[in-house]
Design brief:
alpha+beta; 2 domains; 7 helices
């Protein structure tokens, strides 16, 4: 799925009666009553998500107003607000390091799966017993981290 990038206006556009936004060179500026409050690089999505979530959470702007200005889906803004409320500010600053890792097949689960396979359980039953997909078992058998008798 391709990431949708918001369109930042070259001239000042109002997000609400007191908030505005514009892009100058490669930076996006957020203004409150004419004074710059936030700034970030136009390609950096983490500060964009955080700033828009705080604007909505503080009732400074609505998600529909932001959606119209940035040409961005309104549901994305609702997701950012939910992330802010549930996980806090830190969730916007740290990248997701779970890429390329099988989040369900931890070392403990691999040991459990190996015990079930050693006791002549089928791949399907082993997967059901430890609470993972059968494809995960097949993948680890093919990879060599699990061995079938």
């Amino acid at each position: 799925m391709q990431t949708q990038i918001p369109f930042f206006p070259e001239t000042t556009k109002l997000l609400s009666p007191s908030w505005g936004v514009f892009q100058k060179s490669d930076f996006v500026y957020y203004l409150h009553n004419g004074s710059p409050v936030h700034v970030h690089h136009k390609d950096d999505m983490r500060p964009f998500r955080y700033i828009t979530a705080t604007l909505i959470d503080n009732n400074s702007c609505s998600a529909t107003e932001l959606s119209k200005v940035f040409c961005f889906n309104v549901r994305n803004f609702y997701r950012y607000v939910k992330q802010l409320r549930e996980k806090g500010i830190e969730s916007f600053s740290k990248p997701n390091d779970a890429r390329g890792q099988c989040y369900k097949m931890t070392e403990d689960k691999i040991k459990q799966a190996q015990e079930f396979l050693d006791n002549s359980y089928s791949q399907k039953r082993t997967a059901r017993e430890i609470g993972v997909n059968e494809a995960s078992i097949r993948y680890h058998l093919k990879k060599g981290t699990l061995k079938k008798r």
